[in-house]
């Protein structure tokens, strides 16, 4: 029996049979006893078809909604991915540009550590001659104690650079150990009453001064520093250099003035004890915040079949003009530290002979010249992004040469006073510190990146040569005659000027 629901009214056909207006199944059902079986089957099929059509249309609508939602979701996802890629590309762009820089913490360790190394180098300048005399040495011996660390440092670099793997942590940790031990040995020489323990302590400290090379190499490393930021970082290193030769002699003079009447901790040994403590603390700070670069990839041998030929290795040909630039920059690097080192070693001896200065006054005199030049060195950090390296080199060297020329006139006319000597020292300190900012950075901009390690070594050995010879010359300046002493320095600078004028066009490099 088929049940039908008549919600409104029923219709009869010509035969008098009642047809149901089927809309669905409902509890309100009427029975039709006279309904033919075929008609009932038709109605059943019709009901099934209506349900199927309704379900299919509903499914189509739902699938349409789902497809639209999926489409919108895809658009949003694509937009999000595009945005993220754009932001990531913006974040990573500086890493591949000429303006990339290391992390600030690592830069603080490198630049701040360089300033402390400079401080350790110069802190003994004001009292070294008196310390040597107390133990039976001469002024020339004191000049040797100032300059000898660089000889040991240059020797150590031959082996350390072969083992560092292109990284910095190992070498810098070795530097800290050497600085702690060397300063302690230097301080113990007075108690032991052994003159050569001063020299031994400074030689051990020399192994710590290998960090001078690694500071320069870090600030010109193409993996972490862009070409337009290398002179800027080199200028910061020179600011640290200015801090060292300003604060070092001043601190040494103050410690000598205080005296500390103690055979272990006194006016001449206290710089060693204090610097040893400072290095212990800085060593710990380094291991907390410094982030080293990745090691160089190791070259693995490649197995080749009989028919294969090895691929040619890339070879960068260095032109004769580039070799000339390399020689010129190494010579200027030597010249800058030759002049600075000789004056720093000579001022305590010369002022003691002519003006009766104590180590305290001589240290203050050296520090005053550095202090007055310090603002100009800071200004150079800002100007380095706008001025070519060759212009900075010419300006600094000319200023230093002017100081030498003025000093020669004062010596010949016997009119050396505090004011006139200070003007000469200020011009020399500012000029040659300024010139030293651009030697390595200029080479790193002109030569291939893989040459960075080689030119860093060449520049550092030039620095060491200048420091050693300059310190010895400064200690012996009074004995050889001050006019001859200044004449030697002017000849060295003059030869560099000839090289500079010859290679003027080849010295052009990017700013920054």
TrEMBL record:
UniProt entry keywords in alphabetical sequence: Membrane, Transmembrane, Transmembrane helix
Membrane topology classification: Multi-pass membrane protein
UniProt-listed Pfam families: MFS_1
Bilayer-spanning residue ranges: 107-132, 138-159, 171-188, 194-215, 236-258, 270-290, 323-343, 363-381, 393-412, 418-443, 486-504
Principal localisation: membrane
Stored SUPFAM superfamilies: MFS general substrate transporter
UniProt-listed InterPro entries: MFS, MFS_Domain-Containing_Protein, MFS_trans_sf
GO molecular function annotations of the record: transmembrane transporter activity
Subcellular location: Membrane
Superkingdom in the source lineage: Eukaryota
Gene Ontology CC: membrane
PANTHER family per record: INNER MEMBRANE TRANSPORT PROTEIN YAJR
UniProt name for this protein: MFS general substrate transporter
